[in-house]
Amino acid sequence: MRLVASRALVRSAAHEIRVRWERGALTNQVPCECLAVSAPGEVGGVPKVPEFPLLSRHYIPGVLELRSPSEPGWMDRETRVLAERHFRAAGDGEAGGGALGGVAFIAEPATFSYGDFVRGFLLPNRPCVFSSAFTRAWGCRRRWVTPAGRPDFDYLLQTYGDVVVPVADCGVQEYNSNPKEHMPLRDYISYWKEYIQGDCSSPRGCLYLKDWHLCRDSPADDVFTLPVYFSSDWLNEFWDTLGVDDYRFVYAGPTGTWSPFHADIFRSFSWSVNVCGRKKWLLFPPGQEEALRDHLGHLPYDVTVPALMDKCLHPRRTLAGPALELTQEAGEMVFVPSGWHHQVHNLDDTISINHNWVNGFNLANMWHFLQQELRAVQEEVGQWRDSMPDWHQHCQVIMRSCSGINFEEFYHFLKVIAERRLCILEEGVAEDDTRPGLEQAVFDVGRIVDVLASVVTHPDFQRVDTGTFSPQPEKLLQRLRRTVAATAAP
C-alpha cells in the first residue's frame, strides 16, 4: 500500500490553503476534496549472509541446513547482539539493498528461524519468497479456493457478499495510481464473472479489488496465521492500540489486473501471499528508481511501456539495471523490503493477502522518508513562507494530507510502541505471552532511542507544539536511554 503524494497533490493542497488564507477562512485542515489518496499496494559487523537458493524466472529448489524455528518472543540474544552491532556500524544511514542475481527461495518452515530471516533479509534489506508450505494450513487456502485452484465465488458470496469493498480501475491513470469506487463484494464478483466470460474483457474496464480491510471490517477467524517472521509489526500494533485502522489488506482480481510502479507507504516492509493464482513482480532496489524518472523528474506509472527506453523522455534510464523479475505461485509468500519500488501483474484470477509493516529494522527508513516528504512540501510552498502566518504548521498539515502522517503523529507512534516495550521489560513475559519477548523488547527500545534522538533535535519538530504531549519527548528519551544502559549487551 502507498499514499499518492506527488508534487501535483502537494501543489493542489498548497493552492487550497493559499485560497482559504486570502479569504480569511484558513483553518488547520486541508479539505479532502483537494487531495487524491489511494493505496495500490501490493555493513559492517554482520556475518556473511547465509546462502539461499535463488529465483530468476524459475525457482531453484534447495535444502536449507539452518537452525530450528525461534522460541516464543521472536528474537534470541544472539540475533539481538548481531542486529545492534549492525546498526551501530551503519549509523544514521538509510537501509539500501543492492542489486541481486535472483531472489532467495525459502523451502522448509521447520529449518528456517526468525534469526535466519533477520540475518538473510531484514538486515541486508533483500527480498525473498517463502514456499507454499508456510501457508498450507491457512483457512483461506481451504475455503476461498475451489479444488481446481480458482477463486470459490460461491463461498465468498455466502460469507462476504454484502461487504462493501474498494475497487480500482486499472485502465485509468490518476497521478501514478488508479481511481477507486466502492461496491458490495457481490457486485464485484458479478463483474468478475462477466470479465471471465468476455475473454478477459468487459465494457466496465479492468477492475481490481484493492485494499479491502478484511480484518478490520469483518470476522476474520481462521483466515490466516501471521508468520513469525512478520510478527514484529509496529504499524498494525499502533493502529490496533488506537482501534481505528490497520494496514492489512485483501486484493482480488482477474487476469490482467495490476498495480502501478510504487514503493510502499512510509517505506514500510510488506508481505504478500497468493491465496490462489499467480503474480508477476518487477522489483528495483532502493535508488534505482531515480534513474527511471523522466526529464521532468516524475517516476514512471508503468515500467513496461516502450517509452521508458526513449532517451529524450528518460535520459538516465540506462543507469538503472533491469527489473528483478519473479513469478509468485499460489500459496507462496513474497517479502518486499523497505524502499524497493515494484510493479505487480496478476497472471491468473488471483486473491492475495498483504500487510504493510514497520519495526526496528526499517524505522530509520520511515523517519528519513518523512523528512524527505516535509522538505518536498516546504519547497513547493516556499514562496509563502514570509507572508503566511503559521507557515511551518501548515506545512505539517499538507504533509499529513499527502503522506498520511506528520511529525506530531510520528512521535505518538514512537511513544505508543516505546511504552508497550517498557511495560514488557518492567513486568516480564509470561510463558504463554503472545507479546514480544524480552530480547525483542530490548532491541526495539534501542532502535526507538536512535530515531527519537534524531526527531527531538530536528528543527521542524522543535516547532511543533508539544505542550500537551505526555510524556514530553525529552523525558521519554531519557527514560528509554536509561533502559538501554541497564540492558546493554556486554
UniProtKB/TrEMBL annotation:
One of its GO terms (cellular component) is cytoplasm. It catalyses: L-lysyl-[protein] + 2-oxoglutarate + O2 = 4-hydroxy-L-lysyl-[protein] + succinate + CO2. Keywords: Iron, Metal-binding, Oxidoreductase. GO terms for molecular function: 2-oxoglutarate-dependent dioxygenase activity; catalytic activity, acting on a protein; metal ion binding; sequence-specific DNA binding. Residues 215-374 form the JmjC domain. It holds the Pfam family Cupin_8. The keyword Iron applies. One of its GO terms (biological process) is positive regulation of translational termination. SMART domains: JmjC (SM00558). It comes from the Eukaryota. Its cofactor is Fe(2+). Interacts with ETF1. Interacts with the ETF1-GSPT1 complex. Belongs to the JMJD6 family. This is 2-oxoglutarate and iron-dependent oxygenase JMJD4. It comes from Carlito syrichta (Philippine tarsier).
